[in-house]
Amino acid sequence: MVKAVVLGAAGGIGQPLSLLLKVNPQITELGLYDIVNTPGVAADLSHIATPAVVIGRLPPDDGMQAVLAGADLVVIPAGVPRKPGINGKIVMELATGIATVCPKAFVLVISNPVNSTVPIVAEVFKKHGVYNPKKLFGVTTLDVVRASTFVAEILQKPEEAPKVVVPVVGGHSGVTIVPLLSQSTHPLPGDLSGDAYAALVKRIQFGGDEVVKAKDGAGSATLSMAYAGAEFANKIIRAVKGERGIVAPSFVPLDADRDGATALGRAGVVDLEFFSSNVELGPEGVVKIHSLGRITSQEEELVKAAIPELRTNIKTGVDFVRAKYEAEEKNPRL
Ligand SMILES: NC(=O)C1=CN([C@@H]2O[C@H](COP(=O)(O)OP(=O)(O)OC[C@H]3O[C@@H](n4cnc5c(N)ncnc54)[C@H](O)[C@@H]3O)[C@@H](O)[C@H]2O)C=CC1
Ligand SMILES: O=C([O-])CC(=O)C(=O)O
């Protein structure tokens, strides 16, 4: 029995993600919450002949609480694309709901900026005394999916795309996205250096911009993100069901695995509370955070360039929540 919940289920990502979760045969209950349209989305999906029983609720009458009750896994794609300030408030509100109703659930954060929204969720959970760093994940899978696709494209082997695995570490925005192309399961041609290498790294780091530009005012990546989110959720579910050795990159709190954090520190990842690296998953969440392995000097430079921005992004998230709580303490009516 697995209950999955999508918060922001009526949106551009929320709807296709909910569809993919509905067709996942492991999921037996699917809860959909949004401030608009969830009853319709739920009614529509409920006609699909797969095991998951679907409910959809709106804010009045404790809609979020009803949806979250008994959740094993909560995915959060709520928010507005490319409006970080607004999303902080939304994510804080949703994290408060999770902390109150289903504090033991796995939480998968998609809402941007992931480098700040994951720390926001952590701070809310700490405030409620329910923080478990092993079950909190920032979803960076789209970067991994893009890296697989673009490498297969360069190799002129699109049919190999699903099998190409490239670890992508760091965070989920611009220069904080660090593809470790030297560890690709499908080596790149020897002549991919200089400008061609830089262009590939840049394409992975700024893949989101490519979609925003092509959509020409109609938002950012939704369908590829829904695919990526469903893939990552499925990995979590497989691990919960007891499958061993599942490893995937995710932006996680480094206190989920102190030894892993120490090893990352030796690899130059210092003074960060969160980082995306290959994470081994188990029934209780993070089993091990892998370090970076052997990387090239070019990749070392990319990691170095990512760290200051990550540090700033993480601090922005933490400060946002702390300032809100401080203001509330001073004026409880807020
Ligand atoms: N992690 C990643 O790789 C990616 C993250 N994103 C991010 O995902 C988020 C969602 O993107 P889209 O689906 O394209 O946006 P969208 O605007 O199409 O959908 C967002 C949904 O959130 C809902 N929402 C707003 N406030 C809410 C609240 N308080 N409670 C519940 N639901 C609420 C809206 O009603 C809407 O249905 C954005 O922050 C975007 O930047 C997008 C692509 C990739
Ligand atoms: O770029 C954006 O705004 C959405 C996003 O995170 C991505 O596509 O990777």
TrEMBL record:
GO terms for biological process: malate metabolic process; tricarboxylic acid cycle. It is an enzyme of class 1 (oxidoreductase). It comes from the Eukaryota. Keywords: NAD, Oxidoreductase, Tricarboxylic acid cycle. The active site is at residue 172. It holds the Pfam family Ldh_1_N. One of its GO terms (molecular function) is L-malate dehydrogenase (NAD+) activity. InterPro entries: L-lactate/malate_DH (IPR001557), Lactate/malate_DH_C (IPR022383), Lactate/malate_DH_N (IPR001236), Lactate_DH/Glyco_Ohase_4_C (IPR015955), Malate_DH_AS (IPR001252), Malate_DH_type1 (IPR010097), NAD(P)-bd_dom_sf (IPR036291). Residues 3-138 form the Lactate/malate dehydrogenase N-terminal domain. It catalyses: (S)-malate + NAD(+) = oxaloacetate + NADH + H(+). NAD(+) binds at residues 8-14, 34, 87, 110-112, 225. Homodimer. PANTHER family: MALATE AND LACTATE DEHYDROGENASE, MALATE DEHYDROGENASE, MITOCHONDRIAL. This is Malate dehydrogenase. It comes from Mycena pura. The lineage of its organism: Eukaryota, Fungi, Dikarya, Basidiomycota, Agaricomycotina.
